[in-house]
Each structure stands twice: as C-alpha cells, then as structure tokens.
Amino acid sequence: MILAEFNPIKAVVAVPLFTFTVAGHTVVVSNHMLTVTIAALVLLIVLPIAMRKCTITPRGTHNAVEAICQYIREDIARPLLHEKTDAYIGYIWTIFFFILTMNLVSLVPTDSMVTLATGTESRFGGPVTANIWITGAMAFVSSVLVHVSGMRRQGVVRYFATLAPKVMWPLMPLLYLLEVVTVFMRPFTLAIRLFVNMVAGHVVLATIIGLILVFRSYVAATASVLAAAALSTLELLVAFLQAFIFMFLTTVYISFAVEPEH
Amino acid sequence: MIQMDLTSLVLAAEASGEAGDAVLGAVLGAVIGVGMVVIGAGLAISFIGSKALESIARQPESGGRIFPTMVIACALVEGIALFALLICFLVVYWFH
Fold it and tell me: A189 touching B, CB under 8 A?
C-alpha cells in the first residue's frame, strides 16, 4: 500500500477497473468483482483436483479438504440437523470454502505487488469481503434458503404459525413481533458481521503501515512492519473464524427452520 | 491513525462555525461510543475466556469441546462490538 496521502479507508473501497459492453448495457468491473471471480476460479480448480483420487487413506490436499468437510458435517451439521444433514451440507460446505477463500485472497496484497511492479498506483485486488454487497448477497442467499426450506418442510402457514414458541396468550403478540424482528435482522447481522470484521482488520493494517509515512523514521518503520506482521497473523485467524461463524450460524438458522424447536 | 483523522476533522469543524458544531458533536459522540463499546466487549470476552479456562482446568479431557465453543462465543461478541464501530463510522461520515 504505497500511500501518497494517508487515507486508510482507501484500502478497502471498491474501485472500477475496466468496463465492457454486452448487449447494449455497460458493465463496470470493479476490483472486488475481479477478486470474487479469482476466488471462485481457485475453488473450482483446486477442489476437484484435490478430491479426484479416491484412496482409502487420503494424503495432502485431499486429506485437508476431507478433514475439514468431515468436521463440519459430523460435529457441526449433524448435531443440529440430524437426518436432514445431507440435504443442506452441500450449501454449508460451499459457503464455508467460498468465504474462507475470499478472506484468504483478501490477505494477499496483490494491489501493492502490482503497484511495486509497475510503478503506477494500482488497485488490482482488494479485500473482497470488505464489500457489503458481496457479504449481503451471501447472507441474502442463506436467508432465502432458510425460509424456503422451512416453508417446504413444514408448509407455509405452519412455518409462520410456529415462528414463536407457545407461551401464555397475553404474551403471544409481543413474542411474535420479537420473533419477526429477529428473523428479519438475521441476514443483516450475518452480512454486517463478516463485512465489519474484514473492514476493521484491513483499515487497522493500512493505518499501521501508514504510520511509516507519518513518522518517517526507521524506528517507526521497524515497529510498523513488525506490528503489521503480527496483525496479519491475527487477520488469518479472523479469516478462518469469520468463515466458520457464517457457516455455523447459517446451519443454526436452517436447523431452526426445518426442525421444529418444540 | 483514526484518532488523528478525527482530530483534523474536529479542528476543521471548529473553524467552520455552526455546521461545524454538528460535526464536532458527532465525532465526539462516535469516539466516546466506541470507547464504551470496547469496554463492554473486552469484559465479555474476558468472562468467556476465564470461564472456559476454569472448566477446562476442572476437566481437562473436555477441552476439545469447550475450546471451539469459547471461540464461537468470542466471535459473536466481537461481532456486536464491530456493529457499534460500524454505526460510529456511519455517524462520523454522515455528518462530514
């Protein structure tokens, strides 16, 4: 991040990279859209290659992917979803690996590398999950899955009737209102949690690196680089954790919808 | 850093009169709000961590089930703290 001026917010915003026209409509491709495509291509290429050899004892990438999938299916999904695990496990695995790949790709500073290589300031790749539209889209898809699967399993009327647990009749309207508000807020909290974690991490990282510009001394530069390295390790943990939390909460919401709580 | 950005905002606000009062109030409120939220989040995560440590010390073989639960709870508390951070950012840049 070669900062001409000290603006850490610039590290996380999406900028348009190039435009192309298809069928009379102009499509603007931003750096975040490009990184999403790169993350999806990485997943589409790496995962089938890793899982191709079906050996009894897996090795290498196959082992890692299978260990993660096994842990998610047996220890996270099956205690919540019981016999309906296999219907939703594809989506749950996908959401975990996709968010994890996007978070990890966001940690690679491709914009700084391209800037150093070409000499002009470039914003080739940015922190992709630091884009509220991308996390919002995934949260929207998760919530649509939750409601549609709930309505399919229990019937539309019964799904809405059993949103709130049965309590004494004076309390029911208030409790039902509370449950409706909760159901409405869940996709927002899913999206915002992931978005703000990534934005906060990258803004603090950009701020610490930008302190080199503010102080302009070797001592400050050493301290900044060491602090940025330590913070990047924390960002690695946060990347895994936030992908896990998104996937875990999606599983919990699906279990609320398809398994009647009472 | 963020404090220096906000300080420059505050100085610009003081120089520009009445609209500047709104920016000054917004910035002050946002900064104090974030500080209070961080106190709450720090307390909550400390409670979670200490309870998890106590229960693992009582029964070491349950560590494999307690540790992921602690991590999930910490991430959810941190999510709440960062919601508040987001609102403070929105407030500052709305009034700017």
Answer: yes
CA distance B86 to chain A (A): 7
CA angle A126, A130, A135 (to 5 degrees): 125
What are residue A16's DSSP bridge partners?
A30
> How does pLDDT run across A158-192, given as a tens digit for each residue?
888 877 777 787 888 888 888 899 999 999 999 99
Query: Packing angle between helix A172-215 and helix A132-154, nearest 10 degrees?
Result: 160
Q: Do B78 and A197 touch (CB under 8 A)?
A: yes
8-state DSSP, A4: S
Q: Which long-range contacts (C-beta less than 8 Å, at least 24 apart) are formed by B52-56?
A: none
Contact in structure between A232 and B59 (CB atoms under 8 Å): no
CATH numbers and ranges of domains, chain B = 2-95 (1.20.20.10)
* pLDDT value for A228: 93
pLDDT of B42 reads 96
- Main-chain dihedrals φ then ψ at residue A21, nearest 5 degrees: -110, 130
Is there a contact between A148 and A255 (Cβ–Cβ < 8 Å)? no
Tokens found for residue A113: 């590398």
B contact residues 10-69, partner A, Cβ 8 Å cutoff = none
Domain boundaries, chain A: 8-258
